[in-house]
Amino acid sequence: MAAMSGKVVQNVFIAQFYQQNRQFGTQYQRDCCAPYTRTLPPFHGGKLAWTSISSMQMRNLPKYQSGFVNRGTFYCSAASSATAIPSLDKVDFLKLQNGSDIRGVAVSGVEGEPVNLTEPVTEAIAAAFAAWLLDKKKVDASRKLRVSIGHDSRISAQQLQDAVSRGIASGGLDVVQYGLASTPAMFNSTLTEDEAFLCPADGAIMITASHLPYNRNGFKFFTNAGGLGKSDIKDILERAANIYSGFLAKGYSVKNASDSVKKVDYMTVYASDLVKAVRKAAGNIEKPLEGFHIVVDAGNGAGGFFAAKVLEPLGAITSGSQFLEPDGMFPNHIPNPEDKAAMKAITEAVLSNKADLGIIFDTDVDRSAAVDSTGRELNRNRLIALMSAIVLEEHPGTTIVTDSVTSDGLTLFIEKKLGGKHHRFKRGYKNVIDEAIRLNSVGEESHLAIETSGHGALKENHWLDDGAYLMVKLLNKLASARASGRVDGSKVLTDLVEGLEEPAIAVELRLKINQSHPDLKGRSFREYGEAVLQHLENSIASNPKLQKAPVNYEGVRVSGFGGWFLLRLSLHDPVLPLNFEAPSHEDAVKLGLEVASAVKEFQALDTSALDKFVQPQ
């Protein structure tokens, strides 16, 4: 009971603290930080430790220039104390895998979502990563490996960072904490060579759950070879399960990790590199964006640094930027460039401030989108078209790799107007990136791998899906246009997507598989879903109105009635997403009726969303 009470108090405290102090702990204040590194003071066994400060004073602490919580004054390590040992429930670690990421529930309070990413679970996962890294690196005993740790703005970030630190330290590795950081920065930390910032790191961990709700969290892992793949994550989770079994057998206790932990303001390095990239592209002009008005919407995630640390040093005006303060409750909108409310927010900011350009990031800055001066959204197919135009100017004829739900109009744009090749592959940013790497390895040049979600990776940037770097490529075009005498703001970007054919109707529906339905007959949801797809494919073959895509890597993609549909099986969930694009609602309904007719005999498939869509208006 003591453990449960401690956890509830801890979670309530953190939630209230972030709501009352959205700017407390802001990483990217406009003043530079002092020393680059500091040794972390000792952990205080999970208690909320205070040093000569009242709770009221804590709520009114000033912003720290270094961007990190001053642990000499205030601790909230969320580790265990002698009177509040975390409960050790049995955990199915493999269920925490989400493709090449790990995700779980870290904060209680949402009905039906019990916490499964506890501190002991987190510590076991981190210890497993340390063991995995030692096996991969095979260094001699004279050198200690070091792992960098960063997190987004989620309210569980601090407690998980501390648990990760203990797990890494338990494996005999050094820990470098970055505090609030972006996912791309974490990978970059394995490439940067600067001992003043304790770089390069041998491995990196980003604590994030992207755009998911406040109660979720998770981990992404990197080495200098890139992000870990699905098989690596499975290996780490299997190791973690064994370590956690030891906790269950021998008891779990918190060990002091402070001797192995240091802190670094690495985001200063990362932001500086982005600034240098724009200046270099502009011919080493100090302020190539001078006179441009650019607003940023960080959605209260980790991207707030971009306004003050990247745009302003380049000369841009950033007034009107919004939601730059980290707030893990995400009170304004979901930090997601695909979300309609999020895109509406940045569009309104552009128009109300008469800005030249708007930039929006997801929570951990590995995805992004833009809005031009007229309020036209540059996301999804438009962003892919824009990036394709930029990349094909630099690398004529190159292959652009995208996910499976991109439009036929995009294919025509890339291949007929730009002279490139469109390689439509599978959903999943890691799938798209790995396919681009594979194509290069067999002699087919590819320089861009990008999803409609806003994940985009460039060969020139180590195949890292970096939302900030994508925006740097757009800034480069603005700067070069200004240098050539153009004074029409973001029109240079809008002009690049001129001629992109866009559908009148674009819809995604989700058809869920009821895993408890007797029609599964003992099959897994994946087997059942594959049976649905096979039956649909067979029915299409005999339908003269429809044509199956000649090249397709995922699901069943079919053209007809002037548009197309794609039915595929979700990467992780018992869901069959159905995407339509058509020149009119009537044509989209015709496509929908074909799908509905083909899948109607599958009783475990919930087609209510499709049935509603095809009903007469």
TrEMBL record:
Keywords: Carbohydrate metabolism, Glucose metabolism, Isomerase, Magnesium, Metal-binding, Phosphoprotein. Gene3D superfamilies: Alpha-D-Glucose-1,6-Bisphosphate, subunit A, domain 3, Alpha-D-phosphohexomutase, C-terminal domain. Residues 99-242, 281-375, 380-481 form the Alpha-D-phosphohexomutase alpha/beta/alpha domain. PANTHER family: PHOSPHOGLUCOMUTASE (ALPHA-D-GLUCOSE-1,6-BISPHOSPHATE-DEPENDENT), PHOSPHOHEXOSE MUTASE. InterPro entries: A-D-PHexomutase_a/b/a-I (IPR005844), A-D-PHexomutase_a/b/a-I/II/III (IPR016055), A-D-PHexomutase_a/b/a-II (IPR005845), A-D-PHexomutase_a/b/a-III (IPR005846), A-D-PHexomutase_C_sf (IPR036900), Alpha-D-phosphohexomutase_SF (IPR005841), Phosphoglucosamine_mutase (IPR050060). Its EC number is 5.4.2.2. Coiled coil: none annotated. It comes from Hibiscus sabdariffa. Pfam families: PGM_PMM_I (PF02878), PGM_PMM_II (PF02879), PGM_PMM_III (PF02880). It catalyses: O-phospho-L-seryl-[protein] + alpha-D-glucose 1-phosphate = alpha-D-glucose 1,6-bisphosphate + L-seryl-[protein]; alpha-D-glucose 1-phosphate = alpha-D-glucose 6-phosphate; alpha-D-glucose 1,6-bisphosphate + L-seryl-[protein] = O-phospho-L-seryl-[protein] + alpha-D-glucose 6-phosphate. Its cofactor is Mg(2+). Belongs to the phosphohexose mutase family. The keyword Isomerase applies. This is phosphoglucomutase (alpha-D-glucose-1,6-bisphosphate-dependent). SUPFAM superfamilies: Phosphoglucomutase, C-terminal domain, Phosphoglucomutase, first 3 domains. The keyword Magnesium applies. Monomer. It comes from the Eukaryota.
